[in-house]
Amino acid sequence: MAQFDPPGGQGYPADSARRASGCSVGPEPPPSALAALARCVSVEPAKFAAAHWGQTPLLSRAAELPNPVGFTDLLSPADADELLSRRGLRTPFLRVARDGQMVPAARYTGGGGAGAEIGDQVLDEKILELYAGGATLVLQGLHRTWPALIDFTRELSLAVGQPLQVNAYLTPPDSQGFDTHYDTHDVFVLQVDGRKHWRIHPPVLPDPLERQPWGGRADEVAASAQGPPALDVVLEPGDALYLPRGWLHSAQAQQDSSLHLTVGIRALTRYALVEELLALAAQDRRLRATLPFGTDLADPDAIEPELTETVEALRDWLLRVDPAEVTARLRQRAWPASRPAPIRPLAQAAALNALDPDSHVTLRPGLRWQLTGDGDRITLRLFDRTLTLPADCEPALRALLTGKVIRVGDLPALDTDADRLTLTRRLLREAVLTPTPGPARVDGLH
Fold first, then answer.
1. Domain JmjC spans what residues (predicted)?
2. Domain check: are 275 and 415 in the same one?
3. How confident is the model at residue 440 (pLDDT cuts 50, 70, 90)?
4. Which of 304, 334, 364 is the last residue of a domain?
């Protein structure tokens, strides 16, 4: 699976050539990340990458997956009920679909009563009416709102090296929320509760971009859906299904209600490289040149010489483009799309005040980073900011970036505990590190 400066230091690391150049990123995906992937696919990661990633669907039955409780630990029907009734949920964190159409939000939202008069809060009695009448409920953005899915999504994102999003679909018995369609991103479908009948057809447009949604090809999609499916299967609790973008699908709940999670993979594409290359091409004066005075834009003969010269100029520029500039732009695009683990601001502030040489800290889980050195300074690039530190901090910083739990007084290469505390306070305040209990003592040793 090809990777370019992954959407985080804790994705797939740079190769030896990049490490030799003084640029480094984070470690290989941890075992917890690979365990998250193993919950979604029944084959080894290498086989999944070679045979299925971006190419063909993969059905994984519950018996083939290491999920003794299926996926109810991530979001159960009772959890969904809590979100719909007790969390002050607002749009767009909920959508409602019926008969293939979205229900206007005004049908199920309103004010939350005294002190909570915001007018787009989900009203549980309205949701009951719609759901009991056959509407499908779509809980959106659960990778930002539900703790178990926040953690699971972060780990899975490290395994695939791409930003993820999670929605939940609650469908009443014998109902279908959406007509046959395709998504513009890959998905893992995780069946939590109930049974759902899926019909999968090959793409009418392989590898569609986000700007190429299925609605623009509705007639082709409908015609293709009339043919024999490539996969016709009922998902049971604990089953998982991987679908590459573009594959047509429809799903209908069976005799009981159904709850499944859809993990959307917002993978970057080669077209993203093209977009960034074109953005950088603005540096070339030949490509910024004005078309000749009086050019008839409707005349192909008038445009042809300008087109020829433009293509030549673009080709010349592409041959000398700096890959480092492209990767820098890709980093700015991809890194903010994957949040690191949440921090507790109050606890973090208290740890800052109580910090001493015996305190223990660790790297914030899921943090994307890149470390470079230049003379007497080192630069730590994060998903939302850049930190510059003295070069003599590099050994201590590299020790912290391993992700191991470290006692502040044991940080290497700094002369005094005061220097170690100064560096650690800076990194705690910048949310690079988090406080953590020290190793447990055993038989009087630690």
1. 135-282
2. no
3. low
4. 334
pLDDT in tens, 24-72: 444 577 899 999 999 999 999 999 999 999 999 999 999 999 988 899 9
Query: Which among 395, 446, 406 has a CA at the least distance from the CA of 428?
Result: 406
Alpha-carbon distance of 96 to 171, in angstroms, equals 10
Domain end: 204, 236, 265, which one? Answer: 265
The DSSP line for 359-415 is: -EEEEPTT---EEEEETTEEEEE-SS-EEEEEGGGHHHHHHHHT---EEGGG-SS-S
Whether the predicted pLDDT of 14 surpasses 60: no
Residue 298: count other Cβ atoms within 10 Å of its Cβ: 7
Note whether 232 and 188 are same-domain residues.
Answer: yes
Q: Looking at the predicted structure, is the pLDDT value of residue 16 above 90?
A: no
Residue range 189-205, pLDDT digits in tens: 999 999 999 999 999 99
- What is d(CA 2, CA 227) in angstroms, rounded to the nearest whole number? 34
CB within 8 Å of 170: residues ≥ 6 apart:
77, 80, 131, 136, 137, 138, 139, 257, 258, 259
Structural domain boundaries, residue 314: 270-334
In a domain, 446, yes or no: no
pLDDT, tens digit, 9 for 90 and up, residues 219-228 = 999 999 999 9
Whether 252 is in a domain gets the answer yes
Query: By mean pLDDT, which of 142-151, 171-180, 182-191 is the weakest?
Result: 171-180
Instruction: Give the C-alpha separation, 98 to 119, whole Å.
Output: 23
CB 407 within 8 A of CB 381: no
- Are 200 and 328 within one domain? no
Rounded CA separation 435/362 (Å): 6
Beta bridge partners of 109: 122
234 and 285 belong to one structural domain: no
